[in-house]
Amino acid sequence: MEREIQSTKLKVRQLVITGMLSAISIFLGLTGLGFIKIPPVQATIMHIPVIIGAIIEGPIVGAFIGLCFGLFSMYQAFTAPTPTSFIFWNPIIALLPRILIGVVSYYSYIFMKKAINKNAKVSGITVILLFSFMLYLVFRTFFGTVQSTIIGALVFIILLGLFFKFNVSEKNWVLTIGTASIFGTLANTIGVLSLVHLIYIERFANVIKISPDKAGKFIIGIGITNGIPEALISAIITMPVVIAVLKIRK
């Protein structure tokens, strides 16, 4: 009887969290608050509720919130069309990558927890290298290789210093949640752009008025200039929110 009550409470909690985070994602889209301008790009944070839900409540909850996010993307594409809205008229592109955000975020989180238990230092240095390299790719798009390398190296040194100053608990939070946020975001970016390339490359090239041969490089450029900043921003925003929720539950 007691187990049934606990199971019911869990299901109710998951339904409440799913509805709340789905509503937040839609609210961010409707109000325009889900977009952060980082000249010369505009990063979206509409996927962050999906990542938070997945880490807190698991892959099913995360996938469902991602589904709601995807359905809203389709709604926006039909009700406020732009030259490239045809991309999100396709439910495969609009829904599948959004659903994968929750799944990838959760299993990245679990994978990092296991990796940290085996060797926290190696896991930490690996994540910092990944973070620094992502920044290098972003800056290289706008600046020279030398300047970008210097920036990436400085970021790596600073983060490495901070990492060794953190206590064990803080390291675990940052590594697990930060990694889950980054990979969850990249799952969406890579998923959408890969499907666009696979299904609509010629139509997409015609809309942006470039040759299909150059469209592939253009799509990769979008992934670097938009996807990587979105991944880094999602990690920065998601970490304090998830840490606060998990601490309250303890």
Automatic annotation (TrEMBL):
The keyword ATP-binding is assigned to this record: no
Transmembrane segments: 15-36, 48-75, 87-110, 122-139, 145-166, 173-199, 219-246
Entry keywords, A to Z: Membrane, Transmembrane, Transmembrane helix
GO molecular function terms attached to this record: transmembrane transporter activity
Superkingdom of the source species: Bacteria
UniProt keyword Transmembrane helix, yes or no: yes
Pfam families xrefs: ECF_trnsprt
Alphabetized InterPro entries for the sequence: ECF_trnsprt_substrate-spec
Listed name of the protein: Membrane protein
